[in-house]
């Protein structure tokens, strides 16, 4: 998309022009967690329908997501990450690691656990497996959600149904 950041050669400024707001980051988080339908994403991000629609359209225009029909009558779409969208995952992973360290109480524990598929050890918030020393990517990790985070997400879903 064309915006004021296209006037600079700075890759940080250009990147922020594409993904530099809370709602876009939360939408991407949900897509990485396997949520592909509008309502699911709305429930977990707490975005208004208008906010979510604008972010999904922008992500689609920027080539990070593709909209695909999953139902014909009525016509409904789901959103899938493209290769460009998956390439943003290390940024989300780094935000997670930073947030686990600086944005919560020590006694809370990790919200998500990632186990290195090759050796079976939890990598914590590292991008290199602390057990075998191998750099890990999303495809190398088996995610599991903590009970506390799962309860939070379930409560959001229940509250949404009650509206």
TrEMBL record:
InterPro entries the UniProt entry points to: HTH_HxlR, WH-like_DNA-bd_sf, WH_DNA-bd_sf
Pfam families noted in UniProt: HxlR
Protein name: Transcriptional regulator
Lineage: Bacteria, Pseudomonadati, Pseudomonadota, Gammaproteobacteria, Pseudomonadales
Species annotation: Pseudomonas frederiksbergensis
Limits of the HTH hxlR-type domain: 10-107
PANTHER family: TRANSCRIPTIONAL REGULATOR, MARR FAMILY, TRANSCRIPTIONAL REGULATORY PROTEIN
Keywords, ordered alphabetically: DNA-binding, Transcription, Transcription regulation
GO MF entries: DNA binding
Keyword DNA-binding: yes
Keyword Transferase: no
